[in-house]
Write a structure and sequence with these properties.
The protein is α+β, with helices and mostly antiparallel strands. The protein contains 7 helices and 13 strands. The C terminus is likely disordered.
């Protein structure tokens, strides 16, 4: 909860370089996570925070500067999402498409509910997104009964404070305008803004719990039996993808009721089998060709 204080939550995006030591509450917390997870090879961490529930297009985190300047694809080794504070009753899951190990063409859609205190860890190449409203990926004309004043169908917004970390074994993407903690605190104090409060924190207060107190969460498979009996009932989720005008169409091998129940799940992460092709690692990242043309025009 210390990390959700407004004075701290507005800091970032930033880069934590382990060789330089910790200099902010966020970095103390990040370092404690790395130690507990045994991430000895991680040298730098790119991090930022999101405070509200907003729609996030399907995307892969990538070093955009390297992509634009050299046409090089660099992905973090792993990405972490730390759910710090979530408004009670909010159903705002993170969804990930996980390729089939054998072909890479078909995928499973993993729906992870936003639960305070949860840490989600996944390979940095995975396509992921956040639907908002919760059922917005379902065709609206096929779900007329879902419209209304239900809290699950409300407009985006509300408290969903998460800390997002990208782990890099070499170097994190270049930070054009890094925000140093000491400089930010001095500026806030100098401004004398009544809405800003500079707070001192003890390092021990922002460390994660010891590993032996962590509780692993079992990934459950959604019930596909009804869909196998009636294939026509399989819904298609339409998701916008970052960096392209194309939409990702994921036909789910489960009944519509199961899909709705999974997206609205309160605690347990659940798998949904889909036919989506997510083997192309260029899908969900900015267009390199477009970036090159833009750079030529600027020159």
């Amino acid at each position: 909860m210390d990390l959700t204080a407004p004075v701290l939550y507005g800091v970032g995006p930033d880069i934590y370089r382990r060789s330089q030591g910790t200099c902010s509450p966020q970095e103390v917390f990040i370092e404690s996570l790395l130690v507990v997870l045994g991430c000895e090879s991680t040298r730098e961490v790119e991090w930022w925070g999101r405070s509200e529930w907003k729609s996030v297009e399907a995307h892969r985190d990538v070093d955009e500067e390297a992509a634009v300047a050299r046409g090089e694809r660099r992905y973090p080794t792993h990405s972490l999402i730390v759910y710090l504070d979530v408004e009670p009753g909010m159903r705002a899951p993170t969804c990930l498409w996980v390729p089939d190990d054998d072909t890479g063409h078909t995928s499973s859609l993993l729906v992870v509910p936003a639960v305070p205190g949860r840490v989600l860890i996944f390979p940095g190449t995975l396509l992921h997104a956040v639907p908002c409203p919760t059922l917005s990926w379902l065709r609206p004309e096929a779900e007329p009964e879902l419209a209304g004043d239900s809290p699950l169908d409300r407009y985006c917004g509300g408290t969903r404070r998460v800390l997002v970390l990208n782990l890099w074994d070499d170097h994190a993407p270049v930070d054009e305008e890094p925000v140093e903690w000491e400089e930010w605190a001095e500026w806030a104090e100098w401004e004398g803004d009544e809405g800003v409060e500079v707070v001192e924190f003890e390092a021990s207060r922002v460390e994660c719990e010891p590993r032996d107190r962590w509780r692993p969460v079992v990934l459950q498979a959604a019930d596909e039996s009804s869909a196998r009996r009636e294939l026509a009932s399989c819904p298609t989720l339409l998701t916008r993808a970052h960096g392209t005008d194309e939409q990702l169409a994921s036909t789910v091998m489960a009944s519509r009721a199961v899909v709705v129940d999974t997206l609205q799940g309160e605690q347990a992460p659940r798998w949904l089998c889909t036919d989506a092709d997510v083997s192309n690692l260029d899908f969900g990242v900015p267009s390199l060709a477009g970036a090159r043309e833009e750079r030529k025009e600027l020159v």
